[in-house]
Specification:
- This protein is an alpha/beta fold.
- It has 13 helices and 15 strands.
- The chain has two domains: 133 residues, 2-Layer Sandwich (Enolase-like, domain 1), CATH 3.30.390.10; 219 residues, TIM Barrel.
- It has a seven-stranded parallel beta sheet with strand order 5-6-7-8-9-10-11.
- The chain starts with a strand and ends with a strand.
- Bound molecules: 2-succinylbenzoate (OSB) and magnesium ion (MG).
- 2-succinylbenzoate binds next to loops.
Length: 368
């Protein structure tokens, strides 16, 4: 991979509606678009999915920009590579900072696939032509959540995820179930509970949820195993799984029965595929999580979710779920509950340059 430049764009876009969790309300989404261009002028794109503040993981847009410009990109300048997996190995000398690593690694995968005129999905071993689409409702009132579910139902989504916390759980879910008894429904707690809430959490078994996502703290691997032993509802881990080793431990300990894989959270497509392959072997179903991201990261998610182990609909909703106008062409659309997996080279979407310019905050160009 004969790289000539890496360009980083910090962008900022308002969400159509605020995204409310017990940890943070996201109103404007900042993100980093990574463009890696080779000597033939072919560009691959990736996206750093850290937020403005460290509410979801420890990384932020600023720490990602620092790690990318001062550490990861210089490592790539010093160590020419012929495959994205070599970048992953080089980046192992840098602790954690998975979102910064992933943004760059994903751009390398897109470029690598484009150079072979193959789709990213086919290069990583994807087997699906279309993927099932789910959507997230993140509202802090029952009335608003019910309205959103109604609207998303009319758009055909196949799975519905609501955010819960100790102030909005049992009665909230009961109300949703009373309106939508058969809705494929799950709840994401983003670590709002501790094992002290065991008896309370057990009551959520009443609602026939597909799963409960990340009820306890990210490092509560043992506690999640204890909780899973006492609950009928499958536990799915999100924040707890940032490496392949985390996935192995969680599965061996019985901390979860499902894993949410986000390439951005685990350092890129390579690590995401490794976790997927292990889960497939262990018969643990996986699905692709979302990060309120822009079209570039969403496009990578579509290719990733075409792998055979992604048997549960993920957080892969249409561009219109969050954005007035996305930064890719064409925008991501959901038809009859499915998103088509592109067959064009790379991620199969192009940049909407005009929109990218409109939302750009800063741009950094690094020549090789
Ligand atoms: O916990 O899954 C999460 C969005 C941002 C940060 C964390 C999470 C989420 C979501 C997915 O719930 C939203 C989406 O992109 O569809
Ligand atoms: Mg989650």
């Amino acid at each position: 991979m004969n790289i000539s430049t890496v360009q980083l764009y910090v962008i900022k876009m308002p969400l159509k509606i605020p995204f409310q969790t017990h940890l943070e309300t996201v109103i404007d989404r900042e993100g980093i678009i990574v463009q890696v261009t080779d000597v033939d002028g072919i560009s691959g794109y990736g996206e750093g999915v850290a937020f403005t503040t460290p509410w979801y993981t420890e990384e932020t847009v600023k720490t990602s920009m620092h790690v990318l410009t001062d550490i990861l990109i210089p490592l790539l300048q010093k160590n020419p590579i012929s495959h994205p997996e070599e970048a992953t190995n080089i980046f192992k000398s840098v602790k954690r900072n998975f979102m910064a690593k992933a943004g760059l690694e994903m751009a390398l995968w897109d470029l690598y696939a484009k150079k072979q005129s193959k789709s990213l999905a086919s290069v990583i071993g994807g087997t699906r032509q279309k993927i099932s689409s789910g959507v997230v409702v993140a509202a802090d009132s029952t009335v608003v959540a019910l309205k959103q579910i109604e609207k998303f139902l009319s758009e055909g989504y196949q799975r519905y995820k609501v955010k819960i916390n100790p102030k909005q759980d049992y009665d909230f879910l009961a109300e949703i179930r009373s309106h939508f008894p058969d809705l494929p429904l799950m709840a994401d707690a983003n670590s709002a509970y501790s094992l002290k809430d065991l008896d309370h959490l057990k009551r959520l078994d009443d609602f026939n949820l597909l799963m409960i996502e990340q009820p306890l703290a990210a490092d509560d691997i043992i506690e999640h195993a204890m909780l899973q032993k006492n609950m009928k509802t499958p536990i799915c881990l999100d924040e707890s799984i940032v490496t392949f080793e985390d996935a192995k431990q969680a599965i061996e300990l019985g901390s979860c029965r499902v894993i949410n894989i986000k390439a951005g959270r685990v350092g890129g497509i390579g690590e995401a595929k490794k976790i997927h392959d292990y889960c497939l072997e262990k018969e643990v179903p996986v699905w692709c999580g979302g990060m309120i991201e822009f079209g570039i990261s969403r496009a990578h998610n579509i290719s990733l979710a075409s792998l055979p182990g992604f048997t549960i609909p993920g957080d892969i909703s249409a561009s219109t779920r969050f954005w007035e106008e996305d930064i890719i062409y064409p925008e991501i659309t959901v038809n009859g509950g499915y998103v088509n997996v592109p067959t064009e080279p790379g991620i199969g979407f192009t940049i909407n340059e005009k929109r990218l310019k409109q939302v750009q905050q800063t741009k950094v160009v690094i020549n090789f």
